[in-house]
Amino acid sequence: MRFEGIWTPVVTPYQEDFSLDRAALADTVEHLIGAGVHGLILAGTTGEYYAQTPQERVEMMGEMAGLVKGRVPLVIGTGAMRTEDSIAYAEAAKAAGADAILIATPPYACPTGREIALHALAVDRAANLPVILYNYPDRMGAMMDEACLDRLGRSPNFAAIKESSGDINRVHLLARDYPHIGLLCGMDDQALEFFAWGARGWVCAGSNFAPEAHIALYEACALEGDFDKGRRIMKAMMPLMRVLEQGGKFIQCIKHGLTLRGIPAGPPRRPLHPLNKDDKRALEEVIRTMNRAVADITGEAQ
To answer: What domains can be seen in the chain, in order of their start residue?
Structure first.
């Protein structure tokens, strides 16, 4: 399986009592598929999987599969602190009809590269599906280093890696030494650099509410090879990317952005809290400015 294009880690819309807003989730799926994203990811960081019970996570798998109906590939995250729990989520993902799974480093334990690889191999054996690896050391506390990648690269299921370390040298390493593992941008403010180094896909939370702009950058760089146009689009998107990557209120911004599209994403689950009025106004202005600039570049309404 090839992971190319824009892959949206879908938010989990909540009611004010923090229960799942099924109507908003259905609207989100239709909005994203209609906009032309290339795949959907359930139970990524943006989906707040860490704040859900095991029962909720498994129920969400069936809910999403029923909404997507095979129209685009569905990737389901297996992230958990214990390998046994990740295995259980992988088995449930396969039963729900996932096209692939997302395997992240177990957080807090700070495993070695070898231990991360053994964890991923155990999860892989449980599902036997294509895998996106998720390297996010700032949240997980450990890096999928060369020792890890060397072990995992021997299995054909490990098809791609979402690289979210923020270290541009990792992009160089992956592009140069691990070309058999598809490179996916996982750091929004480095998207142009990822594409320049051959990435064919982008896992971008901002595409929940701005799929058009994200698709425009992907098409300019990865399909058209027009990096002059890509730089202009990237310049227009950078203020938003700075807010998302450096603002400390990542999920709250994504949820408010989707709400601005007419789909009430609701509050984040605790310990997070919604944006205040000033943060909302600032985000809204950034989005409006970006949409106008990208529309001017592409000649399309955003």
So the answer is: 5-298 (3.20.20.70)
